[in-house]
């Protein structure tokens, strides 16, 4: 059984549905800190309430459901983590240690995402290499680098089959992200349809890697199904689909909503986070070791986002 934490989050709410499609509803156990009764993840298969800082409960539930794979997604994102750094440490690192220990005791395959947030100001910013200096200046980044190293450790020390990717900003129309820095690239689509204008909290000219959620979901499944003997890296594969700055996504939206207007009210906290991250990262290792491929570029994503949001009645 596949055991997912953070199943009602931005990635989890779509990954659970996709994995239930692929592997069968009852083979994917969804968990999150709260139960939302009418949520399709709760309705379409096994669901358990789990606070990932409760290691004992996590072990019990994983054992009860005979987990053989753990997908650990529960975490606080970058902007929230900067507001509550110690809470972020407890959830992001406490939750990860519990998930790794549970996986070790039940000998599960293991996935947890890292992020472009695992890089810092001294990391080469353009075409950031797979192996390079990582001195992040955010609590989220410290959590992500520690997480990458911890997952590698569990592989080398205990032989645990840990795998992971460094996600760029993820854009989706199902569940909006909570507390991220890249969320402007999601909010802008909602606002373009609702009000025809958007005030960006990220400054003009600030490039960040991004990816449409369908590509992110496919990447997780492809990595988890990859031949382990081909994996020279294990965790923290750089993957990206595109890199853009606010003016570029606005221009793409204007191809569909011609009088869309954007102005700026830069949030110094999230701007500082964004500026500490790369402009664009290099996915070569992921392409070579497990055939990573993104299908959506900015044009294709924008077209699909606007159609899907309209269908949702935004
Ligand atoms: C965030 N969406 O903004 C997340 C992600 C690369 C960005 O880690 O914190």
Layout of strands and helices, then pairs:
Layout: E1 2-5, H1 12-23, E2 28-32, H2 40-43, E3 47-49, H3 55-64, E4 69-72, H4 78-83, H5 85-106, E5 109-111, E6 114-115, E7 126-128, H6 139-158, E8 162-163, E9 165-167, E10 169-171, H7 184-194, E11 197-200, E12 208-212, H8 213-225, E13 237-238, E14 242-244, H9 246-254, E15 261-264, H10 268-276, E16 280-281, H11 284-290, H12 298-311
Parallel strand pairs: 1-2, 1-4, 2-3, 4-5, 5-8, 6-9, 7-16, 9-13, 10-12, 11-15
Antiparallel strand pairs: 12-14
Bound molecules: (3R)-3-hydroxy-L-norvaline (VAH).
(3R)-3-hydroxy-L-norvaline (VAH) is lined by residues 77-78, 115-117, 140, 167-170, 177, 180-182.
Large-scale geometry: globular
State the major sheet. Answer: 6 strands, parallel
Number of helices: 12
Low-confidence spans? none
Strand order, largest beta sheet: 3-2-1-4-5-8
> Helix and strand succession?
EHEHEHEHHEEEHEEEHEEHEEHEHEHH
Share in helix: 40-55%
End-to-end Cα distance, whole Å, is 36 Å
Task: Briefly note the structural class of the backbone.
Answer: alpha/beta
Strand portion: 15-25%
Summed over residues and divided by their number, the pLDDT gives a mean of 98
Rg, rounded, reads: 19 Å
Task: Describe the structure in your own words.
The chain is globular. The longest helix has 22 residues, at 85-106. It contains twelve helices and 16 strands. The model has no long low-confidence stretch (mean pLDDT 98). The protein has 314 residues and is of the alpha/beta class. The chain has a six-stranded parallel β-sheet, sandwiched between helices. A three-stranded parallel β-sheet has the order 6-9-13. A three-stranded mixed β-sheet has the order 10-12-14. The protein starts with a strand and ends with a helix. It has helices at 12-23, 40-43, 55-64, 78-83, 85-106, 139-158, 184-194, 213-225, 246-254, 268-276, 284-290, 298-311; strands at 2-5, 28-32, 47-49, 69-72, 109-111, 114-115, 126-128, 162-163, 165-167, 169-171, 197-200, 208-212, 237-238, 242-244, 261-264, 280-281. Strand 2 (28-32), helix 2 (40-43) and strand 3 form a beta-alpha-beta unit. Helix 5 (85-106) packs parallel to helix 6 (139-158). It binds (3R)-3-hydroxy-L-norvaline (VAH). (3R)-3-hydroxy-L-norvaline binds next to strand 10.
